[in-house]
Specification:
The structure is a single chain. The chain is mostly helical and about 190 residues long. Helices cover about 75% and strands about 0% of the residues.
Amino acid sequence: FFFQAEDGIRDTSVTGVQTCALRSALQDYASAADLYRQATAKFHALDDRTGESDSQRLLASVLIEADRSAEALEPAQRAIALLETLDDSAYLALARTAYAVALAHLGRGDEALALSQRALDGMAGVRDSAMQLSVWLWHAEVLGLVGRAAEALDVAQREVQPRMGPGHPSNTQMRRYHLMRAEALSALGRAAE
């Protein structure tokens, strides 16, 4: 299971940004969530714990984006449980930060901050800058959600921006993400009128 970006890059580690792109391509969060539920079931039947954990993590991300954080807790927890058996610190950190964002949305700030920090601690030694970027972005979101805006801004300036320097592949992804997010917010605004 992988995501094929418009620019032809095949990514087996679909990021939250690409999850939004997938959701946009499928026209709604429900379709994206159904896709990840189906993928989870297939990977489970194949006893592919890596694929199953990734599908669970991505399902949690879609549910968070759909403002269904309470529903995102279970797949995020399952992803964490699977990843703890796989010795994959980068994906474990992504799952933990997704879970932390869901907790923060639900007003469970102390738990969210502790889990987000645990995810960052688990990234020590991970060299993949795209993974680092994703974890730091989620961490900044947690900080913002728990009312620590100054710290969120500091993280964005100190940790996120340097990882998105000129030529970084995430720059294109982030531009797409912000464009899609603006389009989605605009559509929501028109629908509310």
